[in-house]
Amino acid sequence: MFAQLSVWSMMLLQQQEVGFDMVSMWNQMGFAARAVVIVMFVMSAWSIGVMIDRYLAYNSARKQSRQYAPAVAGALREGKLDEAVKVSERYKKSHLAKVVVAGLQEFQAHEMSSEIPGETIESSKRALDRAQAITHAELNRGLSGLATIGSTAPFVGLFGTVVGIINAFEGISSEKSTGLGAVAGGISEALVATAIGLFVAIPAVWMFNYFNTKVEAFDVEMDNSSSELLDYFLKKTQKAAAS
Predict the structure, then answer these.
(1) C-alpha distances in angstroms, 37 versus 16, 41, 161?
(2) Higher pLDDT residue, 162 or 40?
(3) Each residue's pLDDT tens digit, 117-166
(4) Spatial CB neighbours of 110, under 8 Å, sequence gap ≥ 6
(5) How far is residue 24's CA from residue 29's CA, in Å, rounded to a whole number?
(6) Distance separating alpha carbons of residues 14 and 118, to the nearest angstrom
(7) Alpha-carbon distance 98 to 100, whole Å?
(8) What angle do CA 84, 126, 241 make, to 5 degrees?
């Protein structure tokens, strides 16, 4: 009876020595586990920075494009290409303005030349394609890193989990005991690494999918704007040739 009480007392003392608050778990971690946690916090900070940057950029692009579209359409209806270019240059954060202004400037550069109309349209189309590719790359900036973090953070956390399990078995081996005190440090390392890995990965994957959908919508809008502008150039060229 007394022997059993002694065993239970020792186990309780071991449990009391093991803290499960953040400071205690950090102190119980080994060098490898701490390195894993630091790496994942860096990954988390970088991904949060990308999320904030892309969210602000996409909101600005959407807001300015909504203001830009009717303004440039009005200038083009009146045949004022110079005014359309000036309007485009005022909305520097609009993805539509970045594409449309390239086509307008290229068309203006060839409008008064002796080139045949087909060459002017083709040159404008190439300028629109180049501007669209550049704008697409700008909109995509940081998203590949976000996808990489979302896919690799669980594996980094898994590495920390493996390290924690190894430390737990080392505790059993060194203390010749299977009690909570022998394995608590290693188990806490494993659980913390797993939790942080998921904490970093899940928001990164969610936001990558959300931002990727936004970019696809922007690409459709740029395609439509390019097509409408080319139709406008073609009609304007045909009208000039007829007159």
Answers:
(1) 25, 6, 11
(2) 40
(3) 567 788 889 999 999 999 999 999 999 999 999 999 989 888 888 887 77
(4) 119, 120, 123, 124
(5) 9
(6) 85
(7) 6
(8) 65
